[in-house]
Amino acid sequence: MTEIRTPRLLLRTWHDDDLVPMADIHADPRVMRWIGDGSVRDLELTAEDIERWEEEWDEEGFGLFAVELLASGELIGFAGLCVPEWLPEVMPAVAVSWRIGSQFWGQGYASEAAHATLEFALQDRGLDRVISINRVGDNASENVIRKLGMVLERETAHPAHGYPLRVHAIDLTEFQA
Questions:
Q1: 10 Å Cβ neighbour count for 160?
Q2: Per-residue pLDDT of the chain (177 residues; tens, 9 = 90+)
Q3: Separation CA 17–CA 28 (nearest Å)
Q4: What is the DSSP letter of 69?
Q5: Between 43-60 and 19-26, two packed helices, what is the crossing angle to 10 degrees?
Q6: Which residues lie closer than 8 Å to 117 by C-beta, 6 or more apart?
Q7: Which string of DSSP letters, residue by residue, matches 89-105?
Q8: CA 68, 73, 76: angle at the middle one, nearest 5?
């Protein structure tokens, strides 16, 4: 698996000692408010998530990177690419995704990691198009999506939960790396 360094971040493989800090991020209702049904996730569910994310690397040749701060080595969340099979109407598609601990919000880390992920999608994986899906009302994610140069493609509803979603897309041949 590839490692990506940005000015402040390291996007890397998952390590065993990432489980507890990622579970702490998943246990924060502010982080999980916009994810799925909004429920927090415990250590066991987080372990299952990480295992699934690692399997996607094996199956797809891309996945979600663990994101750590270069300055401290602290895990701050994840960023990467995933196949959004839970939203069949957008398939086939590859989505850029991120989840950052709330104590790290407002510092540009999500944008920095997501931008590096788009560069990886274009330059290393040869993808020509990437989408991003966010829940309507999640203004912080909407801001990151705009910074990436993505444009609104459609509005829809979450198939399981019914709340409104926005699907944005970018043609990576036009992406400014």
A1: 10
A2: 679 999 999 999 999 999 999 999 999 999 999 999 999 999 999 999 999 999 999 999 999 999 999 999 999 999 999 999 999 999 999 999 999 999 999 999 999 999 999 999 988 898 999 999 999 999 999 999 999 999 999 999 999 999 999 999 999 887 766
A3: 19
A4: E
A5: 110
A6: 4, 11, 65, 79, 80, 81, 96, 98
A7: GG-S--EEEEEE-GGGT
A8: 35
Count the Cβ atoms, other than its own, within 10 Å of residue 64. 24
Coil, helix or strand for 5? strand
Q: How far apart are CA 112 and CA 132, in angstroms?
A: 15
Query: What is the DSSP track for 10-55?
Result: EEE---GGGHHHHHHHHT-HHHHTTSTTS----HHHHHHHHHHHHH
Would you say 169 and 130 are in contact if contact means Cβ atoms under 8 Å apart?
A: yes
When computed from its CA atoms, the radius of gyration of the chain, rounded to whole angstroms, is 15
Q: Is the pTM of this model over 0.85?
A: yes
Residue 17 identity = D
DSSP labels, 122-169: IIIT--SEEEEEEETT-HHHHHHHHHTT-EEEEEEE-TTT--EEEEEE
